[in-house]
Amino acid sequence: MTSPFCVTLDCDSLASHHAVWGLPPPAAAEVESFFLRALDAADGWLRARKLPATLFVTGGDVTPAVLERLRQLAGAGHEVGNHTFSHPYDLASLDADTVRRELERNHRLLADVGLPCRGFRAPGYHLSPAALAAITRLGYTYSSSQITGWVYPTAKWATALGLRLRGRRTRTVRHPVSDWWTPKAPYHPDPAAPHRPGSSPVWELPIAAGRFGLPSVGALIHAGLPPFLFDTPGARPWIVNLHLTDFIPETPRLALSGPDFTLRVPLERRLATLDRILARATGQGRRPGTLGELARALG
User: Fold this and answer.
1) Under 8 Å CB-to-CB from 240, ≥6 apart: which residues?
2) Mean pLDDT, 10 residues at a time, the chain of 299 residues
3) Distance between CA atoms of 244 and 55, rounded to whole angstroms?
4) Domains in the chain: how many in total?
5) For residue 115, what are the domain limits?
6) CATH number of the CATH domain containing 15
7) Torsion angle of alpha carbons 105, 106, 108, 111, nearest 10°?
8) CA torsion 158→159→164→165, rounded to 10°?
9) pTM recorded for the entire structure
């Protein structure tokens, strides 16, 4: 049986994106505007294609208006997941109590406004033992934190090196080399080493590389590569990882438009590329679904 096609959207704040590219923090008004514009654009694309999505939310910078928009999206059939409260890129290096507080604080914030979470994605795409323990304590059914293969970690390392040569410092962190051997199919992680299978009751639903080693991540999708390179075997879920920046129109007014090449690709072209990815998944007979639905189907 062919596995589903799952669209995930990391709802990082504009401040988090600035931190990736070594930019100064944005103004508060820009943060809310960025959230609302991007969520509206993403909702339009998803609605037109009848695609449910899993939205991983970082709650530290959301305003009441953004929370209301997220409630509307949840009411339309989308799922909300926990992406930590403040999006610490170095989450994997923090002590267990700090990690637990990050996750529990975000969980409570979202639950208090009617957005209960049952899934998690780690900033920086690395599930640490402390984070796994925290989501197990919260009763979550899944994480979707690991990226398989060598392509994405290598591209991130090269980007960080380029920024350093230009005098900027990114807050992203390198992936442990052990993550390269993360299983490509869903698995129960080892509580002591979540990159390998073990006895945890939580599912890890990795953002698995396709046949050619490329995970379906927005930054790679929009790099001009042929869509067939992202083809994923039908026996594995095809999980696409996007960010709010994938849906922001190109505009020179955003400071982010300078370093982030995604925003230099016209929005129309970005959406057309996503449509070609969707067409290939549909051609495989895949049905769209949220990660929560996938975890329930796995049992």
Assistant:
1) 5, 6, 7, 8, 216, 217, 221, 274, 277
2) 93 90 87 94 97 97 96 98 95 95 98 98 95 98 91 62 62 72 96 97 94 88 91 95 91 75 89 97 97 96
3) 10
4) 1
5) 5-298
6) 3.20.20.370
7) 180
8) 70
9) 0.93
